[in-house]
Amino acid sequence: MTFAAEVRKAVTPRAALLVIGVLALQLLFIASYIGALHNPKPTDVPFGVVAPQQVSARLVTELDGLPGGPLDPRAVADEATARRQILDREIDGALIVDPRGTRDTVLVASGGGTVLANSLTKIIKQAELSQERTARAVDVAPASHQDFDGLSSFYLAVGWCVGGYLCASILAISAGSRPANRERALIRTGVMALYAIAGGIGGAVIIGPVLDALPGSFWGLSGLGALTVFAVGMITLALEALTGIVGIGLAVLLVVIAGNPSAGGAFPLPMLPDFWRAIGPALPPGASTWTARSIAYFRGNAVTGPLLVLSAWAVVGTAVTLLTAMRGKERDAASGTEATMGGTGSTPV
User: Fold this and answer.
1) What are the phi and psi torsion angles at 74 (to 5°)?
2) Which of 204, 192, 183 is nearest to 232 (CA)?
3) Strands 45-50 and 71-75
4) Which of 141, 104, 135, 139 is nearest to 122 (CA)?
5) What's the mean pLDDT in 233-250?
6) pLDDT tens-place string over residues 39-80
């Protein structure tokens, strides 16, 4: 047998397509991470301005016209309101103008991302210099000293997501990508739920009591972790049920390639390009990262939307997995009936 013939025998068309698919995922991984993170800069960051009425409108206009459009400023009634809006995650910072002096205050929240807080401080200080004023930074939701650059929430979310699609992948590899029947699909769903609970609690234990990297409610983080793992695991099982082993690659595309760089982890959402800023909140890593930061630093505020996103992924993944198994059983029953009719010599009508 010639070498060429041996290659043709060894490399099946299916294997070749899978290798090409892996190469495509590799290139997409490079393009997504570098495209999203190579040149972070704040754009249209929600920002409050507290100033006397006679200068407030002028300041808002001036800040709105800064080169590159880093801020989306709006007038705020007073400092207390500005602080509340930051903690509610409605704005990311605020300028408090001192009408009796030349030293103002810029409120930031490093718990939402140290890089963004530092960028806002720098932008305001530069703008103040042109007005012969100075500004001091006050952190109203500071990141933990054990949480470098506010990244722990992101790494926690990534770990939960990885656990979800790896568990689903192992179930597919060990027992077939498509459940044989509804009962098998229910068993897989139950296994995924138990694994999600263990993963959620385990992650919260590591990042809280063990490493002291993230403050906030232990059980709140545990519940978030369980929901994140279950959502990613079930959507992976659904993709596997629909497309076979290719579903593992599709899960990687969804969670790792699209989800991680757009999650607002390394750089908060206002510092990402428009495309990544738009898709991030709708994907599990982004929804989980936002919620973890809210639990840790923002009194659990502004979590309804992200939790609904994670719940939607979980519900859709579960429904598709179960429905696909039921349809597969119906097809198998129909095939069995046709085979029996053929074996008895019956002629289809």
Assistant:
1) -150, 145
2) 192
3) parallel
4) 135
5) 93
6) 999 999 999 999 998 899 999 999 999 999 999 999 999 999
